[in-house]
Specification:
Blueprint lengths: L1 H32 L1 H7 L13 H16 L9 H33 L5
Helix pairs in contact: 1-4
């Protein structure tokens, strides 16, 4: 049964990597297809890697960007590719969360509660 634990843990790691990849794709898509709106958030450059002196403003821009993606005003863009990317991101994040919970429960069952139950 411990082999199942490793499969679940591996799937969780894959979900984490995919989540980062999809996040960068969302940023790239938005930067390319909506450049005027991209500049209003206050990103420096591509929005992925920033210099140390711009970290605080980058975090503020990232926060504004995520708030915009969750707001109803995002629907005014009528960007089906962005909607698809965000749906994929939500699905991957949900799968990662469920796999994390399952990994935690399996670890508790096989290692911590082994002698108790």
């Amino acid at each position: 049964m411990t082999l199942f634990f490793y499969w679940v843990f591996g799937a969780m790691c894959v979900a984490c990597v995919l989540s980062v990849v999809v996040h960068f794709r969302v940023l790239r898509h938005f930067r390319i297809h909506h450049p005027q709106l991209w500049l209003t958030f206050g990103f420096h450059g591509s929005g992925t890697w920033v210099q140390a002196q711009h970290e605080a403003s980058h975090l503020a821009a990232e926060r504004k960007f995520k708030q915009f993606l969750r707001s109803p005003s995002r629907l005014q863009l009528q960007d089906s590719k962005l909607d698809t990317l965000l749906s994929v991101a939500r699905a991957i994040n949900l799968a990662g969360l469920l796999l994390f919970i399952l990994t935690l429960l399996l670890w508790l069952y096989f290692d911590v509660w082994k002698g108790v139950l």
